[in-house]
Design brief:
150 residues, globular, disordered N terminus
Length: 150
Amino acid sequence: MNNGAGSFSIERTIPGKRPEMIAVMLYGEKEDGTPWYFRDSEIDKILVHEFCHSFISPDKKYKKIATRLLNENRKKLNSMGYGIWENVIDETLVRASVIRYLIDHDYSDDTIRQEISNQHKYYGFTWLPTDIEWYKGDIMAIFDQMQEKE
């Protein structure tokens, strides 16, 4: 979460230990110094979304699909700062990961459906599947499935 003007972090240094970055979103510490976060679906979604960015490296084999999606949705994606094909891959996968997180952590189907709807309606990621069951599989397959249809 330490990647730009929207950063939500501070550095914490405990004497004798290595400095660490702490996300600031209803942050607190247990008596032993372990950080905790208030469980709220909005905060959970933001944290999961931002942390997932660390694990994604867009594969060039999806450049054609991502470029097409970018061109078809340029106005909406550019308004959010997503102007290159790599952003489409990265943001698609982190958004699908958030939905998977909600499923894996027993959020209600209504909450999950609302998140999918928000991704379509407000953020323009209309290519994300609407079927909750789809997210229980391999979310990395989303671009492979799109390539098969072309």
